[in-house]
Design a protein that fits this description.
heterodimer, A: GMP Synthetase, Chain A, domain 3, three-stranded mixed sheet, 7 helices, 3 strands, globular, B: globular
Amino acid sequence: MTLGLINANPVVHAKKERVVRNEDPHGDDAVDPLEIYDILLLLANFVRDIRDPEHPYSLEQLSVLSEESITVDEKLGRILITFTPTIQHCSMATVIGLCLRVKLKECFPPHFKVDIKVAPGSHADEESGDVRKTNAFNKLLNDKERVAAALENPNLRQLVDECLYSNEL
Amino acid sequence: MAEPSQLSQYIESFVDSSRSPTQQAASLEAIASLLKNNQLTIETLVREMEGYLTTVDNIIRARGILLLGEVLVCLASKPLDDATIHSLIGFFTDRLADWRALRGALVGCLALMRRKSSGGMVCGSDAKAVAESYLQNLQVQSLGQYERKLSFELMECVLERYPNAVASLGDTLIYGICESVDGEKDPHCLMLTFHIIEVLSRLFPDPSDALAGFAHELFEILGCYFPIHFTHQKDEDMTIKRDDLARALMLAFSSTPLFEPYAIPLLLEKLSSSLPSAKLDSLRYLTDCTMKYGADRMAKHIEAIWSSLKEAIFTSLDSVLLFTPESLEGPDLPKNEIAAEALSLLEKLIVQNTKLFLDLIVGDEDISMIFNTLSDYKNYHEIPLERKQRLNAVGRILFTTAKASQVSCNRVFECFFSRLMDILGLSARNSSGQPFFEESILISKRCNHGALYLSIEILSACRDMIASSETILAATSHTEETWKYLLQSFSSALTMGFCSAFICSSEGTHDAATYIGVKGLLILATFPGGYSLISKTVFEKILVTFVSIINEEYSKRLPWKLALKALVEIGSFIERYHESEKEPSYMDIVVEKILSLAFVGDFGIPFPLRLEALSDIGTSGRSYMLKVVQGLEEAIYANLYEVYVCMANKLLLILKDNYHVHGSTNSAEIVTHLLKCYSDKVIPWIRCEKGFEEVLLQFAINIWNQFENSTHFNASQTNKKGVLDVMMKAMRLAVANCSEEKQNIIVQKSYNILSSSISFPLEEMLLQEGFQIAQEVDNISSRDEWVLSLFAAVTIAVHPQTHIPNTRSIVSLFMTTLLKGNVVAAQALGSMVNKLDLKSMRGQTSSDCTLEEAMDIILNLSLWIFDKNSSSSIQSKMISVHDTGLNDLSNGVGSCTSLQIHAILGLAWIGKGLLMRGHEKVNDITMIFLRCLQSSGRAGISHQETSISENNYKLDLHNSVMKTAADAFQILIGDCEQCLNREFHAIIRPLYKQRFFSAVMPVLQSLVMKLEPLSRSFLFRASAHVIIDTPLIVVLSDTKKIIPMLLDGLSALSNDVVDKDVLYGLLLVLSGILMDKNGQEAVSDSAHTVVNCLVDLTRYPHMMLVRETAMQCLIAISGLSHARIYPMRTQVLQAVIKALDDPKRAVRREAVRCRQAWSVFSECWHQLHQEASISNSFHSFSQVQ
C-alpha cells in the first residue's frame, strides 16, 4: 500500500538545543508544553513510518511541531496545538492532525480539552486565498463526532495506528 | 614392525573417500604414531603405498599423495636422513605438475620445506627445484581458495627460508610471482601475497637488480588494493581484520624504494579523498614510506606533500580549544586521529629533510596570512570560527616544527617568534627584567590573544624539545642557539604579557584569556635547566602571581582552579626533573604561603577552598606533601586542643559575651574540615605512595598522646558528635593503611590510655548483673566515651594478625557499651569476631581468648537477655531499680525494650563479622533474630497483668524490637563502608551472601506459612532486606521460589510510609528480574499476580520513584508471551489512565510509554481478528495463536 512520495524533498531543520528543566524533587510538576512536546515526539519518525524510509527525520527536524507551538493551561485543562504541515496537501495534514489527536487522547487524562489547529498560511487551501477552508479544516480536526467517524473508518484507523505504534514493533 | 596387513588397512581407510572424516583422521594418526615410534620406516610406507601413489585413478592418487603429505606434516620434528628428504622432495616437486592431485603435493612440499635444521632440511638446490617446478606448473589463480592459500604459503616459505637459492632465478621468479598474485581477492590469501611481495623486495635490494624492471608492474598489482575496503561480515573470518590487511599492505608498499615514483602520487591522491579511513591510511602509509624510502627520494615530492598535509591539518583539526583545568598540561595530542597522524608525519618529514621543509613552512602564504591578520582581533572569543580553526592549525604546525630539532627550533624562533613579539609590542632586554615605563601604555596591545596563543605553542614546543633531548645538564651548550638568545631576552617581557592577559581578563572575564595567561606562565615556569634559561626573578614572579590569585581571586572559580593546577604542575615538574635550584623558591613562595592558609584567621578564602589548595599542592611532590602533612597535623592538634580544653574556658566567656559563641564553634568546625581533608585527600595519596607509613603512625600516636595529656577534657555536647565522627574516620583510615607492626604499636598505645581511664567489667559480674552494668555505663564521662570510640575505631581497622591485648575484657567492655547503644562498639566487636584466631596459638596469656570463647561470652549474655524466663526477671529487676521512688512503670519497660534493641543491633554487627568469615555460629544469632520475629509480642505481654492501655503501649514497644530484628538482616548481609570490608582487612569468605541467602530464605518462607497474617509483616521486612542485598544474579537463579515471597513483601510493605525505602529496593529487584530474559520466563507463570501487585504500586502515594519503577516494570511485562498477558490488558490500561494524571512528570512519561507498549499489543490483537492480511511484523502473533 505504498504510495508515491508526497513530499520527496522535505526541508530539514537543525535540532534545537533542549532546555534543561530543573527538577524539583518535592511538589507537583505541572503539565507544560515541553512535556506534551516530548510525548508527541514519541511519534518521531512517523513520516518515515507511513510513507518513506528515505526520510529518517523526526517531526522536530521537519519543523512540523515545535515547543512554541504548544500552549497549555493547566487550570482550565486546555491544550492548544498548532502544527505546520510540510506537505501542502490535504491528506497528510489530516492524518497528522488525527494522529496528534489520538495520541493526546491516549496520553492525557480525559479532563484535558485538546484543540488542534493548522498554522495559518501553511496549508495549501489557504494559499489559494480561501481562508474559510482552513477554518473548515480546523473545524474538522476539532469536531468530536467527525473524528470519531474518521476513526471508525478501518483504513484511516489502520493508518493512524501504524503512525502511532509501528515504531515500537 | 607393524603388520603389513594392518598398515594397508589404515592406508585403505584413509584413501577410501567414502569413509567418514573421523575415520580418516584416526588412520592418519595411527600411521604417524607408527612412524614416530620407529615401528615403521618411511621406505616401507612408500613401498606399501606405491600402488596408491602411481595409480591412474585420479581420486585415489590424490588421496594417496595427500596421505603421504599429511604424514610428513605429523613428522615435522622427527629426524630424517638427507637421502629420504631428497627423494621425497623430488617426488613432491614432480607431483606439482599433477593438477589433479595438487593438494597432497603442496602439503608435502610445505611440510618438507618447513622442517627445522635439527631434523634434516631440504637442501638449497632442491628448494630451487621446487620453486622452478612451482613457477612452471602452477596456475595459482585458477585454483580453489584452499589450494591458493597453500601455494602462497609454499612460496612465502621458499622466499623466507631459501632466499639465496631462489634469488638466482631472477626475472622468472618475479614474473611468476606477479602472475600468481594478480587478481587475488580472498583476505587470507591477500595477507600472504602482501607478505610475499614484501619479502621479494627484500630479496632484491639493489635498484639495479632484476626487480627494477618489474617495479611498476608489481606496484600496479598492489596499488589497486589501496585503500583497503573490507566489507566482510562479522561472523566469518574473525581472524582477519581490516587493520591487519592495511598493515600488511603498508609493509608491502614501503618494502622497496623502487615503488616511490608510483606510491607517493597514489597516496597523495587518496589523501585528498573525502573518506576519512582513506585519509588516515594514506597518512600512515606516507609516514612509513617516508622512513623507508629515504630523504633523497622523498625530496622530490616534498612540495606536493606539504600542500596536501597542510590541507589535511587545516580541515581536520577541531576549531574549539578547551579551556578547562584538565587540559592545562594534558597530553597535547589532538583528538582527531587524522590530525594526529598528519602532525606525526610532519614531524618525521622535518627531521628527515630539515632545510627543504623549513623553507616551505617559512615561505608558506597561508601561514603568513594568519600572522598578518593576527592583530585584527584582540580577544579570542571575537575571532570567527573558521579563523580559530586555522589559528589552531598553524599553532599545531609551529609546535610540531619547533619540537622536531634544534635547527628547526632556531628557525621558528627566528622567523615567527620575533614576529609575534613585534605584534605583541614586547621589547627585548636582558633578563634582569626591569619594567619599562611604557608598560602600561602597551597593555592593550599586549592583549592579543591570537599572538599569545601562538607564542604559547612555540614556547611549549621549545620546552618539550629540551626536555626530551636529554641535554638539560649541558644547558650552556645551547648558548649559540638563536632560540636561547631570544628566549632569554624576551622571557621577562613575556611574563608581563601573560600577566596582562590575565589582568585584562579579570575585567572582561573570559575563559580564553585566563587560560592563555595561566598556560603561558606555566610553560615559562617549567623550562628545564635551572635558572639558565628563565631567570630566578622571572620564575619567582610567576609563582607570586599564581599564589596571589589563589589568595585573592577565590570568588572566581576558573582562574582559581587554573592557577592551583598550574602550581601543582610546577611542583611536580620540579620533583620530576630534580630542579634543585628552583625547589627552595617553590617551597618558600608557594608551600609556605599556602600552608599558612590553614592557620590564618577567618577572613578571606572559605575554608574548604583553602584545604583544597593545600592538599592539591601536597600531591605535587613527596617533599611538599611531607610539609603539607606536617602543617595540616599541627593545625589539627591546635584546633583539637581548643575543642578539648579551651571549651571550658570558652563556655565562661560565652556566658559573658555572645560574640565568642561564633569563635568556639569555629574551631570544632575547622577541625572537622581539617580531618575530613586529611582522610579524604591525604590518606588516599599516602596509600598510593610508598614509604609514608611512618607519617600515619605518628598521626595516630599523636592524637592519642594529645588525648592522654588533656585531662581537663570538656567537649561541649553540641559539636562533639561531628568532631568525634571525623576523628574516628581519620583514625580508622590511618590505622588501616599501616602495616601490622605499626598497628601493634598504635593498639598498645591506645590500650594503655583506655585501661588507665576505664575500669573493665568482670565477666562473671556481667552475666549476673548485666543490666546494672548497663546502668553504670550510662554514667561514663564524655572523655571516656571518646576514648572508647576511638579505641573501637582502631580495632575496626586492624589486620587480623595484629595482636589486641586483653581480648577477653575488651570483648566484655564492648558488649556492655553496645548495650548502651554505642554502634561503633558493636562494629568493633563485629570486626574483632571477624578477625579473631580460631584456635589459640603460641603462648597466649589467660586474658586473650579465641573466637569460641569470645562467642561464648557474647551469646551467653544475649541469650540471657532474650530468654523468656529471665527477661521477665530482668524486667522486674529493672523496674525495681528504676522505680525505687517514682513507681514509673512504663519507663522500666521502655528501658528494657531499648536494651533489647541495642542488643539486637550489636548482635547484628557481630553476626555480620561471623557471616563474612563463614563461621557457623552466625546461625545461632540468626535464630535469635528469627525468634524475635516470631514472638508476635506475646513474650512481652504475658507476665504483665496491667491495664489494656498499658498493654497497647507495650505491644508498640515490642513492635519496635521486632522491627529492629528485621532490620538486623540488612546489617547482616548489606555492605558497610565504616567497617568490615576489604579496606579494613576483614576476612571475607567468597560467596558468603549467596550462602546466607540460600540458608535463610527457606526458613523465612516456612515461618511466613506458620504465622498468622497480622504478624507476618516483619518477616517480610526481614526477607526483603535479604533479597535486596543479595546479588541479583543469585536471586535470578532462584526466581520461581522467591517471587511469591517478593510479591507478598511488596504488598505488605506498601501499607506503611516508613517502609518506603525498603519497598523501593525490593521493587528494584523485581524490575531486575523482569529485565532479565531468564527472569521473565520464571515470572511468566505468575504474571497475573505480578501485574496485580504492580498495578497497586502505581498508586503508591509516598514515593515517586516507586510509581515510576512500577510503571517501568509494567512495560517490561508487556514483553512476555502475549497469550499469557492478554487477559490483564484492560486492568493495566485502566491503571495507566489513572497514572496519566499523576502529579509527577516522570511517572506520566512512563505511563505514556507503558500505554504505548500495551496498546501496540492490543491493536495488533484487534487487527489479527479483523483482517485477513497481516503484515510481517505480527508474525510472532500468528505463532502464538
